Amino acid sequence: MPEGSTREIALAAIGMGSNLSSRYGSPEENVWEAVRRLGALGVVLRVATLRVTEPVGYVDQPKFVNTAAVVETRLEPLELLRGLMGIEHEMGRDRAVAPPKGPRVIDLDLLLYGQCVMEEPELTLPHPAMHERRFVLEPLAEIAPEMMHPVLGRTVEELWIGL
């Protein structure tokens, strides 16, 4: 973030997962490499405990390592999303050739961006399926239980308990 920037600071929630090894190591090491790289997009305030989870949708693949992070950023939502996609690409993920919900070196999802609600071709906020996914809500509830889902009007903790 450039010194003296006048953009407001926003809190963003990022969901993270991996189920393939890479040049960085195991899926756990991929997640930690992604956390390290998030520092280029803002200040990483909190990271949840890593969890091993079953795949959802496309089930014929290895289990995932999932977590969530809260980042303080001055980037606008689309800039942040593009930064996350850049990290994925740099770490070896090619969304163009991988099956949807299939195995991946790293997956970074922008879940919440303050109280922002938007629906653009490139980005929907809040993440449209986050409230249905235990592997998203459980780690996020660990580190940011009070974050509000701006459409549902419920906290992350309330959404997690309601699953």
Automatic annotation (TrEMBL):
Alphabetized SUPFAM superfamilies for the sequence: 6-hydroxymethyl-7,8-dihydropterin pyrophosphokinase, HPPK (SSF55083)
Pfam families with a match to the protein in the record: HPPK
GO MF annotation terms: 2-amino-4-hydroxy-6-hydroxymethyldihydropteridine diphosphokinase activity; ATP binding; kinase activity
Annotated signal sequence range: none
UniProt keyword Cell membrane, yes or no: no
InterPro entries in UniProt: Hppk (IPR000550), Hppk_sf (IPR035907)
GO biological processes: folic acid biosynthetic process; tetrahydrofolate biosynthetic process
Pathway where this protein functions: Cofactor biosynthesis; tetrahydrofolate biosynthesis; 2-amino-4-hydroxy-6-hydroxymethyl-7,8-dihydropteridine diphosphate from 7,8-dihydroneopterin triphosphate: step 4/4
Domain 7,8-dihydro-6-hydroxymethylpterin-pyrophosphokinase: 14-145
CDD domains per UniProt: HPPK
Keywords: ATP-binding, Folate biosynthesis, Kinase, Nucleotide-binding, Transferase
EC number of this enzyme: 2.7.6.3
Enzyme class: transferase
PANTHER family: 2-AMINO-4-HYDROXY-6-HYDROXYMETHYLDIHYDROPTERIDINE PYROPHOSPHOKINASE
Task performed by this protein: Catalyzes the transfer of pyrophosphate from adenosine triphosphate (ATP) to 6-hydroxymethyl-7,8-dihydropterin, an enzymatic step in folate biosynthesis pathway.
Family of this protein: Belongs to the HPPK family.
Name of this chain's protein: 2-amino-4-hydroxy-6-hydroxymethyldihydropteridine pyrophosphokinase
Organism of origin: Bryocella elongata
